[in-house]
Amino acid sequence: MESIINAQLPKFKVQAYQNGEFKTVSSQDVLGKWAIFFFYPADFTFVCPTELVDMAEKYDQFKALGVEVYSVSTDSHFVHKAWHDASESIRKIKYPMLADPTGILSRGFGVMIEEEGMAYRGTFLVNPEGKVKIAEVQDNSIGRNADELLRKVEAALFVASHDGEVCPAKWKKGQETLKPSIDLVGKI
Fold it and tell me: In the chain, N or C: fewer CB atoms in 10 Å?
C-alpha cells in the first residue's frame, strides 16, 4: 500500500452546490490555499449529516485559518441541492459540496468502494502547493469529530510556518512545541 502523504492533489473538475448555486470546482481552484477534502458515502443517510453539520459549525474557524472545506460524495450536485432543500440540518452548510458521480476524486484520494459506488469516510488536508499533509480514512460506520480535525489543521499550519518545530501528541494552538535534536533523544 502506497502512502498518500505528500502525494500531489489529483487533477479534477467537478460540479458543486454551495449557497443556493451550482458551480464548477477544479484542482486549479484549490492550489494556492489550504483545503480539506471531507469524503462521505452518500446524501440522505444517517451518520453523514451529523458529520457535515459538525463541520458546518466549525466552518468559520477553518475559514479564519485560511482553509477551505470541500465535502465530497459520489452523489450529483442535483442530489446535494435536493438534500439541502429537504433537510434543516444540511441547510446549515455553507462550504462547497462537491459532486463526484464519476468517482474521479474518490479514486484519486483512494477512498472509493468500487462495489458500492460510494466513498469511505476520508479526511484529507492539502497544502497550498497541492500536497496531502493529513490523511485519515475510516469505516463508514464510524463518525468523525470536527474539533479533532481543527486541532490537527492548526498543528499542520503551525509546522508549515515554523521550520524545525514539531507538535507533540494532543498539542493545541498556543502550547509548546518540540525542536528535534540529538539533545532530545531519550529525554522525552
Answer: N
